[in-house]
Amino acid sequence: MKSHQISRSLLCCVCITIGLAANCNSIEYVPKGPTETEGFEKGLYQLLPGYVHGIYPKASLLADGVSEESLSPQDAMRMTQYKKEIESWLNRVLRIELKPKQFSRPDWLGIRKLHLDRAYIVGRFTSPAKEASSYRDAVVEFQADDRSISLTMSSGLLFAADANGLSSLQISDLASKVLNIPHEKVSKIDVEKHLTTLAGVEVCYGKMRCEWNEREPDYTKRQWWSYIPFWYVKGRLFVNISTMAWKEKGLPASTKSSWVF
User: What is the pTM of this model?
Assistant: First the structure.
């Protein structure tokens, strides 16, 4: 494939998965979360469209969500497989302190055309950590498509710091407390961070990179922790993680979703 074709494919892929392309911002955004977070959500969209994956869908969207029971046998089998893939990634990327002993996959819902006309599966669960642990009562919400999984973790104990005072070191440290980033890689994380206020809420946002640069990509080196868009508000951390097998497949052949339900 020629270099200009690779660049075009990369741009399309990035736009679809985390909304980096500029023309994504030109589309009028309709909030997916509850009314009380609409202003904040619209602000996130202006920063980076993919950031809105950190706002859990509102009740009316969840009410229209689909489960295996409402699908044809063939589509139900597909959804079951998608959920198994999500569980595999949750086990891979999340610290054990945040994970329940057993995921309740039947509670996870598929929502058609949730973001950029793509199908997503969403779910949430609470950390089983005991009372003495700083992980107790932490809530994890996810929104996953066939190429990435967005995780929003809420905890007054883990995320007690104010957004406007966070250092780059603190951000990488927080990420390592909730994600299974290899210990030897944490010190190598480069944090690009910015501060702003959205709908009266102070936000620290940016991207974490580890031994990888999307402007000069080498897909044989990319791992799931190599490029992580994030935002942080007091009490909450959002991260987006690629679930593609970059080493095996490189760039996707198409920007279309392969998840059908």
Answer: 0.89
Q: What is the pLDDT of residues 146-180, one digit of tens each?
A: 999 999 999 999 999 999 999 999 999 999 999 99
Sign for the CA dihedral angle at 129, 133, 137, 142 comes to negative
pLDDT tens per residue across span 111-131 = 999 998 899 999 999 999 998
Residues facing residue 238 across a β-bridge: 152, 231
Instruction: Give domain limits for the chain.
Output: 3-249
Q: In 10 A of CB 72, how many CB atoms?
A: 10
Contact 228, 238 (CB under 8 A): no
User: 183 Cβ partners below 8 Å, 6+ apart?
Assistant: 176
Amino acid at 89: W
Question: Rg of the Cα trace of the chain?
Answer: 18
Interior angle at CA 175, CA 170 and CA 178, nearest 5? 130
Cα–Cα distances in angstroms (integers) from residue 177 to residues 63, 90, 94, 173, 184, in the given order: 33, 15, 9, 6, 14
